[in-house]
Amino acid sequence: MIHYYLTVFPVEALIASQLTPEQFGSYMAVGSHKGSAEQLIFCEVEEGFGDVFDWAFAKEKCVAHPNGDPKSTTYLSIYRVLEHVPLQYMKSLFLTTQDGRTLELPKTEYAPAADWKGCALYKELCPVSPLVASRLSPGEFAKYMVKDTHKVQLPAIVFADIRILEQNNLRDSGNVGTVSKLELDHIHDCIGQVALSGAKPTKTVDRSFFKKFTYQTIATGIYAADSSGIIFYPMPDAETLKRVNYDWGRSAYIL
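-> structure tokens emitted (255 positions)
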């Protein structure tokens, strides 16, 4: 059986594989020789849509090795992939830790949060990757980023909302990695600017937040959007992780 995986972090690609999502995540994170170690976010997609990707090539090349071992990866594209994958063909999203443990996030319909606080931090994951502050809700932010009437826009986007640390209450903010006081001051300054500005709904906080992004920092979940709409992959809370995937929670430094 061939699976098709859209990787969105740290690289954008469409890959055919005979590995299950858990096997694929482990292979991509730590490699067959255990020489690499990196987080990976990928989505399983249905096959056969459109004419951008060579599905016949995948079936020809993604075959088992002579000794019977499954084919790990057959790359179909490494450039401008996300924009050519319709939302309806995207299935579950998977978060893989540096030691190769994978958590499945089922696809759900997006609904505006009842407790929207009026501002947010968003880590754009694909096809661009800055950290931005915004007074737009996730649904509004998604529409803003893909709206074709803007001078600068994206055909599609995947992003996560990030926890906003309270400067005077870091102890109760949970385990979200290391943030210096200078970084924290800058984040809150950017949030203040978009909250008070009547014209600019978003502001770039950090163009090089790439290596600082961890699963600990995710607030409600991960969003994917294009001109047709938005879908949502909710992030389980710590109590849920203890029940359903304790080992992943420990590996992600959440538990």
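The chain is about 20% helix and 30% strand.
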